[in-house]
Each structure stands twice: as C-alpha cells, then as structure tokens.
Amino acid sequence: MQFSYDDYQTEGFYDEMFDAQGNVRLGYDAFKQRSEQLSMEEMTRRHQAAERALMAMGITFNVYSENEGTERIMPVDIIPRIIPSKDWNKLEKGLIQRIKAINLFIDDVYNEQRILNDGVVPRDLIESSKSFLKACIGLKPPKGIWCHITGTDLIKGDDGEYMVLEDNLRCPSGVSYMLENRELLKQTFPEVFARTDVRPVSDYPSRLLQMLQHISGRPDPTVCVLTPGIYNSAYFEHSYLAQQMGVELVDARDLVVHDGYVKMRTTKGFQVVDVIYRRIDDTFLDPHAFNPDSLIGIPGIFDVYKKGRVALANAPGTGVADDKVIYAYVPRIIKYYLDEEPIIPNVRTYICREEEDRKYVLENIEQLVVKEANEAGGYGMLIGPKATKEEHELFRQKILANPRNYIAQPTISLSRVPCLIEGAIEGRHVDLRPYILYGDEINVIPGGLTRVALNKGSLVVNSSQGGGSKDTWVMW
C-alpha cells in the first residue's frame, strides 16, 4: 500500500502541514513528495528503525511514578515539523526580546527592585514565590547574566499565530532529543536532506561550551556538568551534553569546596573548577545556603560563587522568573525594561490571586486549564474540559485555599502535525521548545524540540504524560 496523505483529516484544528483547503504549506513540498514515493510498509519500517536506534543509543528518561521500570524512550515521530524562514525570524526576535527583559527583571528583583517599588509587579508576589531566594539579594552574577540557558514553550492556536505558553529558566531539559532527532531524521530521509535547506542544530554543544567559557572570564577555564545522579529523569541528557562538549560529568561526590575554591577530585588530585553547568535545582545546590537536607549539593559552593571564584549556569535565583504567576506579568516586564510591546504574546492568563480573575476561574473552571505556579512536566494541572466534576471541585478548593499558587488559561486547541500512528496518518497536537543561550550575545538555536501529544485527542505533550517528539526543521 502506497503512503499517502489523501485521507488525512485537517478539520477543526490549525494544521502545520496543510491549510484548510488541503494545500501543502510552505516548506513541506519536498518531504511530502519524497514520503509519498514510499510504501506504508517502508515508512513504518523506517519509523520502527528510528525508535530502535533511540533505545540502542540509550536515549531514555526516567519516570519516577512507574513501578514497572524506571527507563523508557521518548517516542519519536519521523514526519518532521517544518518552520519557514519568515516565521522563524519573527520568533527569534521575539525570544531575544523576552530573554533580555527577563534577565533585567531577575537582576532588578535581587538588587534595586525598581519594578517592585513602581508597583508594576506586586512585591508580595515576589516575596511569596517559592523560587525567590533571599540569599541571592545583592548578587551580581558574572557578566550580569542570570538566565544562560532557557527553553521557552511556544504554541499555536486556531489562528496559526505563535504564543508563549511558559518560560523554563531553571534546568530546561530536552535539548538532547532535539540533537538526536536530527541525526535520526538525517539517517531516515537522507535524500530529503540533500534537497532541503534546513538550518543546522548540531553546533549546540559547541555553542553551549563557548557560552560557559565566556561567563568564566578566565583563559582556558575548566568546565563541568553537575548532575543529581543516575536516577534523575534527564540523566541521559546530562551525560550526553558533557560528552559532546568534552567536559567532565560530576555529581556531589566529585566536587568539594577547598581553600576557597570549588575543586574536582581527579586521579591526579584536586583540580579547580571555573564553570559549572548545573542540572540541580536551586534549593538543592548548597545545603549550607539553602535546603539543609540536600544530599546532592556541594556544601559551601554558594559562598564561593558569591566571591566570584566559580561561575554557575543558570545563576541561583533564576527560578523566580520560572514561576507561572510571574509569567503572566512578562508582557508588563518587557514594556517596563525595554519600552516595547511583546513580539510574541502570552496566552491569556487569569491570575487567581486577583479577585476578579479568581471569580471568573471558579465560575468557568470547566472550560479552563488550571496550573500550579511551580509544577512542571504536566503535573499539578487540571484540563477543565477533560476533567470530572469531582476534579473541578477539588481544584476549586485548592484555589480558594491558596490562590497565589494558581493561574488559569483558556483551553487552546494546539496546532497539529501529521503523525504515523499504527500504520495510519493521524493529526496530533504539538508545542515547540526552542533553546536560547545567553553568553556574549543571545543565540536562539534554529529549531528546538517539537513535543507531541501522542494519545489521541490529548493536549498534554510532556514525555512523563505519554508525549513524544519530532525533529523541527527551520528553513533558510
């Protein structure tokens, strides 16, 4: 049977590959033409080969809540998501604008606090944030950069326009899947790549290393990646990035504060570490400064950092801008610091701490998506149209008990991309996580991780909730 898109249904949703009349969108011609030269059996075979390759390469993540096993692959779909150059150029400008403003905001919050004094962002909102670290007040990170690595989640609604869904500024994950998906697609469709002008993403590890070296301010600095350990859900990524950059992967057992510096244990004795790309959350980083129960941090590291003797990426305290309630204020933050309107808008967001918004959310919870301020991975979330009356009532009570901790947004019909599902072509909802590096300049990697809600009808794209991924092709 020949592979074909003839029976593919686009009604009711914005489709990334076809317009409402069934015409193929800009950028997809070469892929559509090549894929339709293959049989369904051959497409299925290539899809299965890609997933086997993921497992063979050890590209897995851990799922803490599952009893039957700790590791699984993140399923990959071999039909790419393709973004025309014009669309990407606007996204790039919007993301640079956003990161610039957020970095200024974080620095201000921990220093002059102008935005709080002027009432643009409520002071009590910051001071009640779980991610606001009083120990970071007065902190000045190297080069004035707080958010070195960001993964910003973007979505499209029915009108096909991009919106920012949330910002991930603490330890954004998924970049290893972006890199490996590209290698897999090159192997799966080498003839398409030969004919298609796709911007590369393979230089991400070298760009990451250059950024880390830049913030050290020292010639030939020693860089390492700090992981919580093998049981962390993103451990593969930690080891992968360390290997790709050619630096050491370390955990708390390998680092020690000695003679006022952070040093790494080696077979030749202690070696001073200049830069640490940390994949440990702020509060676990140093049991002396933050959570005294942390077993995965390095005692005394924060003091060394404050003295400028080690650089950390991202800077401690950055998570204050990762709060989903703070997200609702980002358009005001951009206007305040840059005197510009946001290039990429936020999703309409209701702030439950504000009385009028809270009243609306409680009365319309069946139509809304409700999120906890500091949860991630699809946890702590209610999707109103798919939830039961009991779940609606439970979240109403949660909101009333702690309104500061919740926001709500309209249920948006995310755009869809064709996927190969059990020998048939079906549409599945997607989002996009581009990765942004902030070193001597702000670099937006041309692509990112397209996450796919593989369960039919689902809007939850997180890997921990049954999601998969696609390669993202940005055209020149």
Automatic annotation (TrEMBL):
Residues 80-453 form the Circularly permuted ATP-grasp type domain. It comes from the Bacteria. Gene3D superfamilies: 3.30.1490.270, 3.40.50.11290. Pfam families: CP_ATPgrasp_2. This is Circularly permuted ATP-grasp type 2 domain-containing protein.
